[in-house]
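About this split. The held-out portion is used to measure sequence recovery: a designer receives only the structure tokens and must propose an amino acid at every position. Recovery is the fraction of positions where the proposal matches the reference. Here is one held-out target exactly as it appears in the evaluation file.
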């Protein structure tokens, strides 16, 4: 297109917009809905016309009459072929140069690969938008929500799933870069949550790395200051902790900087931390500790009694101000009378004595470390439950895994431009 042709085209587009506005200019008493509808309708027509002009101008361009073929041979130009692209501004037919390789007897349009066209001939912008939606809501709901948002993107559920899976696999292979070195105490936590699959319930593993801030508010901006990174997988527990540890190492200010490593008392968590996360301070989740205190109090003083509440309150205060010593002494002094109470004592003494080195809460608080695993409990909810545990959902591991990675990336970096993952 010559400069003169481009100028004429721009004048045509401008004249078309003026004409539409003159024809449909609302009355003085028009409702705000009518005003917004008109602006949106004319705006979308303008965006479509601009897109169509640019795409049709550039799509047929080619460099020479031959191009490289994937088989290693040379493909010859055989004319132009039409294809209807699914763009952010509607379906737009364009012509692309078509090349045929006599060696492997196949043809292709290089422009399709150069532009990163995906399932259903979608542009990268559409693929990114659809995958982002699919990471948040069920595949079957995405087409309806696109219509509700008045976007001129019409796709089938299968295409939606294919886009989400494809981008999820690419995010899994090349996750977004980790955040910069920590400027506050650094913490990591891992946990698991059961996910419904076609082979029964399987554990989805979740991890979170963050910089705790006791004064942080609840707004998105203030929560963003915690600089959370999410990790999720259906693979082994070891693979989860390895991924978490790798991100911790990239954010640890110095190799000697201690990192808070939280867990709920499950043995596998401490075992994996020992294998993959050096220079850590292991912390037993205080909220799980309080649940165990409740078990002891119920067996000792009677569930729901004032004596049980008084004992739990005193033990909580002692843990936060002194550490585990008073609790262990109290348990040692307990002389249960029933067999059931003796079994509770046996189990809980084992739990608390086995974790006493992870219960130095006054020191953890002094260091600015968290003592609760709320961050990873939230990760299990936001990363897994809110997307994968809706009514009637049953997943295959092979299709759930890419979506987990896609969702983790978007939770970590909400403004992530997924177009960079479109090849």
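Reference sequence for scoring:
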């Amino acid at each position: 297109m010559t400069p003169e042709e481009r100028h004429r085209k721009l004048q045509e587009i401008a004249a078309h917009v003026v004409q539409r506005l003159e024809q449909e200019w609302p009355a003085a008493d028009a409702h705000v809905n009518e005003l917004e509808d008109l602006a949106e309708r004319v705006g979308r027509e303008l965006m479509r016309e601009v897109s169509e002009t640019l795409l049709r101008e550039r799509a047929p361009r080619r460099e020479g009459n031959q191009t490289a073929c994937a088989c290693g041979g040379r493909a010859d130009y055989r004319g132009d072929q039409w294809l209807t692209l699914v763009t952010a501004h509607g379906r737009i037919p364009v012509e692309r140069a078509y090349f045929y390789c006599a060696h492997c007897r196949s043809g292709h349009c290089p422009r399709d690969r150069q532009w990163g066209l995906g399932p259903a001939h979608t542009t990268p912008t559409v693929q990114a938008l659809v995958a982002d939606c699919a990471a948040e809501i069920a595949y079957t709901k995405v087409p309806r929500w696109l219509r509700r948002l008045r976007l001129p993107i019409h796709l089938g559920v299968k295409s939606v799933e294919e886009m989400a899976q494809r981008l999820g696999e690419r995010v899994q292979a090349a996750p977004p870069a980790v955040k910069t070195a920590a400027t506050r105490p650094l913490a990591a936590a891992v946990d698991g949550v059961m996910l419904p699959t076609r082979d029964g319930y399987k554990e989805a593993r979740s991890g979170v790395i963050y910089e705790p801030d006791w004064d942080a508010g609840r707004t998105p901006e203030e929560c963003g200051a915690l600089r959370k990174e999410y990790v999720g997988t259906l693979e082994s527990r070891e693979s989860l902790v390895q991924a978490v540890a790798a991100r911790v190492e990239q954010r640890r200010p110095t190799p000697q900087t201690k990192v808070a490593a939280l867990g709920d008392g499950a043995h596998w968590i401490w075992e994996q931390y020992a294998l993959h996360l050096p220079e850590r301070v292991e912390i037993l989740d205080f909220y799980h500790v309080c649940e165990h205190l409740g078990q002891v109090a119920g067996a000792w003083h009677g569930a729901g009694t004032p004596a049980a509440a008084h004992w739990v309150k005193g033990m909580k205060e002692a843990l936060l101000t002194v550490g585990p010593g008073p609790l262990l002494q109290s348990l040692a002094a307990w002389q249960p009378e029933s067999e059931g109470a003796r079994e509770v004592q046996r189990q809980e003494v084992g739990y608390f004595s086995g974790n006493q080195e992870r219960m130095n809460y006054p020191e953890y608080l002094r260091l600015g470390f968290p003592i609760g695993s709320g961050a990873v409990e939230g990760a299990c909810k936001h990363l897994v439950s809110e997307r994968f545990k809706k009514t009637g959902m049953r997943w295959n591991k092979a299709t759930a895994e890419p979506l987990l990675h896609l969702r983790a990336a978007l939770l970590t970096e909400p403004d992530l431009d997924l177009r960079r993952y479109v090849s």
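Annotator remark: The chain has four domains: 3-58, 66-173, 187-285+372-421, 287-363.
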